[in-house]
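Incident log, structure service

09:12 report received: a user says their structure output differs between two submissions of the same chain.
09:20 pulled the input from the user's history:
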Amino acid sequence: MESVLAFPLSQLPFVIITLIIAFTVHEFAHAYTAYKFGDPTAKNQGRVTLNPIQHLDPIGTILILIAGFGWARPVPVNRYHFKNPKLAGITVSIAGPLSNLLMAILAFIIWYGLGGLGLLASTPMFVNEFLNTFINLNLVLFVFNLLPLPPLDGYRIIEDLAPANIRAKMTQFEVYGSLIFIILVITPLGDYTIQPIFETVLPFLSGGLDEFFYRLFMT
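09:34 re-ran on a clean worker, output below:
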């Protein structure tokens, strides 16, 4: 059974709970931010909600458990409702990844808060395991979604930063960019492109946050 899963079977409950929360909050952040900037599209489709059913994609969720990557239902955004499309577009795009970073930070605060109060040793082991999974997966989602490849949020940010003529050309070649992204994810090419980014950025980010909160709560 474990051979067909991307995660150890013992971690599966923590992974599933984390993904439900992480995907839901991520997509809610996109939808809520777009609504606040004047775009009612996601609101009209019932996406400004923390109900996981409105955000989870069954195939995308199953794939992340099996293959280690997947997706939630994309939030529809209509830029024509924005008074300042460039600013609003960038903010809406970055809201999702930032929500994952904030959730990881919240888990760090809970973890070291328990440690600072002397409660960590008496905390059930499954709580520690869940917090560890929650931190790691949310940081992965934060970094992953900022990769500058379609259809990820990092690409959308670059798209909004680009001049209008460049943006038009990016739109024309977006389908090829999505194909390149899929190839990088499902083939060994990712070991030489995407994987080095994770191996560099994730330890730096996780280690930095860990040291910061350790000093904040434990010294």
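09:41 both user submissions now match this output. Likely a transient worker issue. Closing.
09:42 reviewer note: The chain has nine helices and no strands. Residues 85-116 form the longest helix (32 residues).
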